[in-house]
Amino acid sequence: MEHLTPKEASDFLHQNPDAVFIDCRSEMEYLFVGHPAGSIWIPWNDGPNWDVNPEFVGHVRKAASQNRPVVLICRSGKRSVDAGMELEKQGFSKVYNVLNGFEGDLDDTHHRSTKNGWRFEGLPWEQC
After folding, report:
1. Which CA distances in Å does 101 have to 67, 84, 105?
2. What whole-number distance in Å separates Cα of residue 98 and Cα of residue 21?
3. pLDDT per residue over 15-47, tens digit each?
4. Phi and psi at residue 53, to the nearest 5°
5. pTM (2 d.p.)
6. CATH number assigned to the domain covering 2-122
């Protein structure tokens, strides 16, 4: 798995139009916090119990096939690493993780999107 900064990921997606951009956060995060423009939502885990989604790999297979690059993003870049490791275990060879995720790291007052991440970098995003 390769790790890309948000800007590098955005550039990669523009240079590789066959790549699939997957937001692997929860449904509530995707819907209410917003999501990167052009991403598709396939949760790695979700409430109410936060169990790993047993359909994750199957849904990614349908969306991407094993030959297309897969770019994963989550809130802060940690869940997407776990999701990416599972995809690699299942035979995906072109997996990329967005460092610092959509909202980035917590600042000193426990807020996100103030230090790093997709939104902090001013990259395109939308809200449902």
Report:
1. 24, 13, 8
2. 10
3. 999 999 999 999 999 999 999 999 999 999 998
4. -70, 110
5. 0.95
6. 3.40.250.10
